[in-house]
Amino acid sequence: MDYGIEVRDQEAVIRLRGRLTFNDHAKLRALIGEMGQNKLKRQVLDLSSLEFVDSAGIGMLLIAREEMDRAAKQFILRGAAGQVKRVLTVAQIAKIVPIED
Amino acid sequence: MIDGTIQGTTQEADQAVGCRTRFAGLLAPGLAADRLNRLALALRLSPLLQAPAGSAPLAVLLAGDGSAVPESDALWLPPVAAWIEPPADTGASDTADRLAPFLAEAAKSDLYLNLTTATAHDLQLGGRLLAALSARHPLEGDRRDDIELALHEAVSNALVHGNLGVAGMKELSAQELERFSRDLGDRLADPVLAGRRIVVTLRIDPAEDGRRLATVEITDEGAGFTPGPRANSGASGRGLDLIGNIADGLTIEDGGRRIRMRFRL
Question: Which ipTM was obtained for this model?
């Protein structure tokens, strides 16, 4: 998985690309750090270029959400499609994290 | 010789003793040609430098040092039906003897994979297995995605929680992610744990309803686990539930060291 962060006026948009699996633990740690450091209240994870996510990937997204909660920031998942959207649905992540189309 | 001329009578006899795959050739990317020739000769297989377009099943040897991990997708597709990492501590002379039991095991399945954790960890095996399966039975759309996820989850469980003994992320915190990250790194660096094997077998059989049924078994060498109700709040623990939702049959055996999944194709 790779990611890029774009800081806009109202929100930081982090675009994830490729496959998010248990093996991306180091990148997720770095990403959570970067989301904590920028000043914006709204942290949006753009999942539209993410091709695949596994259960550990979902778990790491939940950790990111929890850390943003601690930092009093909003955490939003946006644009999930295909397999990623399907897994988020099956794992009922919408109950925990706001999901936008 | 790769000529695909398996006689009907031989095939029937093979099936009676549980032989499904009769290997014709051996590929070993990264191995010197003279060594491959000797090894193939001892195993009564044809030495091959690249996968030909024929249909007779082939076995690929993967070296454990990462140098010979096939970059070519062709080595993960038919006619290759077995991927074997030879035991590390063998001299050239007895490699054939030690490989023969692996090939005998491989012959009992339609697809067979036997690798160390260190090698398997880098390979995205779920996707590779899906490609090998869907080359033999076309899979599309959601079903394809679901089966890839189930295979990936089962492989990840066997490697991370089984062979490497890394506990799942229980709390939702960056510290817990850090702990997971550190444990995974430490244990992959431990030659004993990284040398533990993961074995995957896949068989495709006709189902009663005229469709086909794939049976996948994944075995690890870890401490096992007792399946049971899980806590709902942690970051880990969803994998087995996802597999259970996707597979048409799920059995945990050998104290949690083997998972058997069935998928209607």
Answer: 0.95
